[in-house]
Amino acid sequence: MPISVLLIEDDREHARALVDALVDPWLGWRVEVAPSLAQAQAWLENHTPDILLVCQHFEDGSAYDVLERMGRIPALIIVDAGADAQAAHAMRHGFADFTIRDPGCNYLLALPAQIEAVLERSSSVRARRAAEAMLARQHRLLQAISRAQAVFIASSAPRAAFDALLHELMELTGSRFGLVGQVQRTADGKPFLRMHSMTDVAWDEATRARYTRDAEEGQVFDDLDSLPGQAMLTEKPVVINDAAGDSRSAGMPPGHPPVVSYLGLPILASGELVAVVGLANRPEGYTAADVQFLQPLLSTVGQLELARRAELARRQVEQELARTSALLAEKTRALQSTLASVSQGITNVDGEGRIRVYNQRYLELLNLPEELLAGEPRVEEVVRFQTERGDFGTGFQLIESKARDYVGAEYAAHGGNLTMPESYIRRTVAGRFIEVRTRPLEGGGRVRTFTDVTDYLGALEALRESEARWRSLTQLSSDWYWEQDAEFRFVRIEGSPQNKMDLPDSQLFGLTRWELPNTFADDGQWRAHREQLAQRQVFRNFEIQRMSAQGDPLWVSISGEPIFDAEGQFTGYRGLARDITERKRAEAEIQRLAFYDELTKLPNRRLLLDRLERVATACERDGQHGALLFLDLDNFKGINDTMGHEWGDRLLVQVGMRLRASVRATDTVARLGGDEFVVVLQGLSSEETGAAVESEAVAQKVLQALNEPYDMDGSELHSTPSIGIALFSDRQQPVNELLKRADLAMYQAKAQGRNTLCFFDPAMQAAATARSALEGDIRQGIQRNEFLLHYQPVVNATGQTMGAEALVRWQHPQRGMVPPGQFIPLAEQTGLILPLGQRVLHLACEQLARWNREPATQAWTVAVNVSAQEFRHTEFVPQVLQALYTTGADPGRLKLELTESLLLSDVEESIVKMQVLRNLGVGFSLDDFGTGYSSLSYLKRLPLDQLKIDQSFVRDVLTDPNDAAIACTIVALAHSLGLDVVAEGVETEGQHDFLLRNGCQQFQGYLFGRPGPAEALQPG
Question: In a 10 Å sphere around its CB, with 0-12 CB exposed, 13-18 middle and 19+ buried, how is residue 133 labelled?
């Protein structure tokens, strides 16, 4: 038979001899010569000889190097003669036989037979080994089947089972890599492979990461134009041992080695393709025998996978059943909870008339016992129970009439075929109203609801009553209800406005509000109102005016809101209208009362200030002047007191009329109050001089008009004004400041003799400012105790000090020592004389108490001047007593000096006050006697102790006979009344001697000492 021999020999001659000995055309032997180990290895990569002939040594190795690479190919070593030991050693290391090369190469004659013997022995060994390998493979196959069964049974996840299957297949076939995946199908039946197991064969990191991420669920492989796809499509094994030329082997992941050979194995169970196995790159390739060998394992796996799927489906069904059961239980609980919480009673009656379902509210509304419903009674049993208990009343009177026959028949017929009303109302014994509704179900059953509609019916009744009251109110009140369509045309009127607005209903329908005849509002109001309507806004108190047929103005206030239907579409407006004519008239009257004087109908102070502000603004804008005339009627108080307030009011009315007639219509005449009037002139010259001339002309005209006699019911009355004028040209001065300036000018006019006019002079303002500052300083001076007393001695005929007069002085921190003539008049005008007088009295009493404690001065008296305000104050006497008490001064040493004018107003009250203090020892002196209006009648009644001759008489007593006569008369009068006399202002010895010769015994003046501190006053 043909034999292929590979000869590895580097000796060319010997090699040629071997080839000649072995190659025989009749035998068909073929010998391939490799002179080196490398060439032999290269040839073996693509060829498999039947036997190797190896020389003992060659250039790049030895015979033993061949053993590592020859696999199962039998080899025969050629050893040199005399190297028998080497031959035995070679046999032990795996060479099948040896031959000894003799020098004459006689061994070549027996070499062919020896080769055939080696091949025959090798064939027997291979057959035995093949049988043993087959048995081993069968055993491994059975073990693989067993392990696969165990893994599939133990694991529910496909990945673990398919990993084990792939491992077994790789071991059984000796493949380099492989894959196993489940076959699944898309919705349209197209198969795809979900790979659960795949060998890791030097992938790149991205591919390995993607496989690891999808390994649990399995990577989807749906390329049918591939080697795995071929097995899915045909459901038949795919055996390819030259895959490099097959386009279906393309598309391997990055890093995957090329496919050389491939075995695709479909796994079927009961005719259904359940999985696909792909094995690749077994060195010797694949055959149909491999498919047949693996079929038992694949069939077993198919049945196991089918069983696993069935088990998985069963579990899924069980899980779905459990989930559905839990959901059903939850919905049942939710239904029970819902039924228990609804406000309606509910029953479900089956086709046989039994109450299968009910809720607690049903029992509560009908007052039924739980045990009655527990046995699922028939409806007629419950009705019978209610009827016999009297729930429906006699003759079923508590049931709505349309349902009485049905309920009665239901009671009598015991659940027969009855015509059920869809709904009816019944009343309980307790007076509640229950609505019963019935809805039939398929199969003859029905659902019945029971609703407590007591409140609803009450609300309906209240709504009906409210509607009736609404209609009555709209008919009787000043309001009426209206509706308009989407085009704003009136379509409904309730409470006809015909009698109220002089507009018949027939004229309203079909018209918009702005189309109504004789209806007025300014253009801006109409635009704003129509814009509100266009934007579907609520509007309130939109006011329009109408003219009645008689020409009287009528006012209407309208409020409205948009109307939308159930789909949200605008359908119109509705609202209320009200006759506000009386309110508008009242507002006009309030406006008049708020801004006009009730008596003269002239603007009052509030309106005057507003108009003055406007005029000042206009003057500033137009560059013109204005003028403010402030008028005060001279001696108006006398007219009121003598003629009465009625005449005074009539005079004020006529003054207002004359003032209006004296100025332009654009000028303002106002009454501030009392007898004070103000005239505001505007539009005067831009030059101050010209404006002064114009305003003076108007003022003269006013003077002339007001000097005319006033006719009072046939009697004439005369009155004159004093007018102050203040010019202005801008708003730099506040309006109150302008009034103050004009007021100052008016007082200046009065000071000039009245019935005249006077312009405001800045000097007046300066004086008023200084006066205001001085007033503030006086107030602070009183608080800071800046006022002190100086004392001027009073002496007797011998010049001995008898006491002193307390004279107030003001030690101002900035002004210095302020004389009394600068602050006493202002203190009297402002009322500050009262706290100042108390301060003076207290200081004088303190000094009197100190003098009383000294022997040399304990007999001295202190005289204190008392103003008219102090003396007339209701608390004057208690204040004097309080000063004496707190200081401890002797009342008998205190003299209070009063003036003649002080005592004239109320002689009786003055006597009472003086007598109270006189009883305590306080003395009184009449100061400046002879300068006022003296009356002997009151002089003799007053409890006086002393008269003081005014210094105006003493000053010229030596040169003026009249002053001398007056001074002598006062002395004589005092002596006749038993009063002491003190001469004031004695400055010379001549004056002193004259007065002493004529009977005056006490003196006061610069001759004896100027006023000074108490410490400067010495006894003498």
Answer: exposed
